[in-house]
Amino acid sequence: MELLPAIVGLAVVDSINPSALLATIVLLLRGRRARPLVAVYVVAVLATYFAIGTVLTLGLGLTPEAVIESDALYLVQGVLGAVMLAYALLAPNRQRKHSPAEPPSLPTATRPMAVFALGQRADAVLGQLRQRLGRAAREGFLWLLGLVGFFLLADALGHFQIID
After folding, report:
1. What are 75-93's pLDDT values in tens digits?
2. Domain extent listing, the chain
3. Residue 37: which of 45, 28, 46 has the closest Cα?
4. Segment 99-147, tens digit of pLDDT
């Protein structure tokens, strides 16, 4: 109970937090489309304050080692790993159905002034290259997501001694 005046003092000071007020005002000035962002921001602030309040209420008995080695955290880790792995395996394929059989070749220029005319003629080739790189980046991201999800899930299952 000796911490109560300090906590109340911090709550009063933080209730007039200029950054929280400014962020809310800026988001609200964006119009109707930004209202969900304001709700997400307020919920994030509420969750942060709740977590800090819980830690302050539980006192120093809640050590980082106790939190890290808790069954609840391993359960959250396992669920997160399973979701990441499932998304990586079951992600919808966003590949376009129509693609030309042979990509057009880049135009050539023999005079220095003709180089400036190549920006428009090379757009089709560069567009195809952009699509190919986008597919490769998405595939790489899904591989990385799947591997991290697998290791998170395996570590959580190992903690509960489901797998050895």
Report:
1. 999 999 999 999 999 988 7
2. 4-62, 69-159
3. 28
4. 555 555 655 666 666 666 666 667 777 788 888 888 888 888 999 999 9
Contacts of 80 (CB under 8 A, 6+ apart): 149, 152
Q: Is the pTM of this model over 0.70?
A: no
CA 86 to chain centre: 16
Short-list 48, 39, 45, 3, CA closest to 20: 45
Query: How many CB atoms are located within 10 Å of the residue 149 CB?
Result: 20
For the chain, the three-class secondary structure string (H helix, E strand, C coil) is: CCCHHHHHHHHHHHHCCHHHHHHHHHHHHCCHHHHHHHHHHHHHHHHHHHHHHHHHHHHHHCCHHHHHCCHHHHHHHHHHHHHHHHHHHHCCCCCCCCCCCCCCCCCCCCCHHHHHHHHHHCHHHHHHHHHHHHHHHHHHHHHHHHHHHHHHHHHHHHHCCCCC
- In whole angstroms, give the CA distance from residue 87 to residue 72: 23
Neighbouring CB atoms inside 10 A of 57's CB total 10
